[in-house]
Amino acid sequence: MLQGVCVKADSADVLSKGENYFLFPNGPEHYYVSKYPNQGAHKGCYHAERFQLKHNEIELHKDRLYSAELIYTDPGYSTKLFQRYFIRLSKTHCYFYKDAEQQKLMGCYPKEWFKDFEEIECVVESEQADVSEYEYQEDKPEILEQLSLF
Predict the structure, then answer these.
(1) Is 110 in contact with 37 (CB distance < 8 Å)?
(2) Of 9, 17, 86, 132, which is the most exposed, with the fewest CB atoms less than 10 Å away?
(3) Selection from 113, 92, 108 nearest residue 39 by Cα
């Protein structure tokens, strides 16, 4: 899903010059245009020259963690809630997680389906504790009895 600003309004007053719209590609030179992040609520199909695409204002890096809001899904992916998730970037998509520790992967969606990216400071706690604090206890094997069905 793309967002753009109308630079050339039509005479039917459906589009307003300078207003932001959600754009859904329809071939190489046309967009379905909507005021909402829902392709089904479009106002019509217009030529791409009528819009100037908006891009994310912040520069995103693959090695950083971000928080972003999911604003769109295709009909087949409608089980995900429109809320904030923790994001790790790949080239054109985002891996998004429910928690900052990135333990529960929720999916991988295009970057355009998210907005309001905010960088999250990763607090990595050292999991290598001092070994001398712990005593090693070897588990004794339990004696198990074999059961038979017949």
Answers:
(1) no
(2) 132
(3) 113
> What is the rounded (10 degree) CA torsion for 27, 29, 32, 34?
140
pTM for this entry:
0.49
Give the span between the Cα atoms of 128 and 15, in whole angstroms: 59
The arrangement of strands across the sheet holding 51-53 comes to 44-47, 30-34, 20-25, 2-6, 51-53
- CA–CA separation, 98 vs 118, rounded Å? 15
> pLDDT tens digits for 84-128?
999 998 888 889 998 888 888 888 888 878 888 888 886 544 444
Neighbours of 15 (CB within 10 A): 19
DSSP 58-80: SPP-TTSEEEEEE----GGGTTS
State whether residue 52 is helix, strand or coil: strand
* Residue 108 C-alpha from the chain's centroid: 7
